[in-house]
Design goal:
Blueprint: H1 2-19, E1 43-47, E2 53-54, E3 61-63, E4 65-66, E5 72-80, E6 86-95, E7 109-113, E8 116-120, E9 123-126, E10 130-133, E11 147-156, E12 162-172
């Protein structure tokens, strides 16, 4: 057990050293610790209209949905432990090939116990799907079949501790 903790601590210190100057998470990490405020907590990113659906670590596909107001979105969900159930959530969707940000990453959602978060065992998770709106596209052909990087940043209220998770998936459109 001690050896495992040492390996984890060493890995986290390397990640922290690489991130300390920018204050942002590195592009290849799913959970990181930095001097800029990121902490290692169990944090997962999922999807699902009715209930949590996992996004596979590789070769995943997520459906792009045409919304009633004329835009396109995907459905995001978060699952975490290690933070109080009062968090701000920010999603960011990036076209891997072009680096183009496809949503408005400044959109921040506040989620609390019984106000967007429910307990699931020893974790908290989204009580309903979050709309991650692709504000930068006008037609699904702009992203259909493309790989996107989907990032989520969670910030715990009152502490400003942050955690970061990422998934990549291929965009499907009916």
């Amino acid at each position: 057990m001690l050896a495992r903790r040492s390996v984890i601590a060493l890995a986290l210190s390397f990640l922290a050293a690489g991130c300390a100057s920018s204050g942002s998470a590195p592009s290849d990490a799913s959970l990181v610790v930095t001097d800029g405020g990121f902490v290692a907590i169990p944090l997962d990113l999922g999807t699902g209209a009715v209930a949590w659906e996992d996004i596979a670590p590789s070769a995943a596909h997520v459906k792009l949905i045409f919304g009633p107001q004329g835009g396109y979105h995907t459905l995001g969900r978060i699952r975490f432990s290690g933070f109080a159930p009062d968090v701000s959530v920010q999603f960011r969707v990036i076209d891997v090939a072009t680096g183009r940000v496809l949503n408005d990453p400044s959109d921040t959602l506040r989620r609390r116990e019984r106000a967007g978060l429910v307990r699931n065992g020893d974790q908290w998770e989204s009580s309903s799907a979050e709309l991650v709106i692709f504000t930068q596209i006008r037609n699904p052909s702009e992203v259909m079949g493309r790989t996107v990087r989907w990032e989520v940043t969670l910030e715990e209220a009152g502490t400003a501790r942050r955690a970061f998770a990422v998934r990549e998936f291929v965009v499907d459109y009916p």
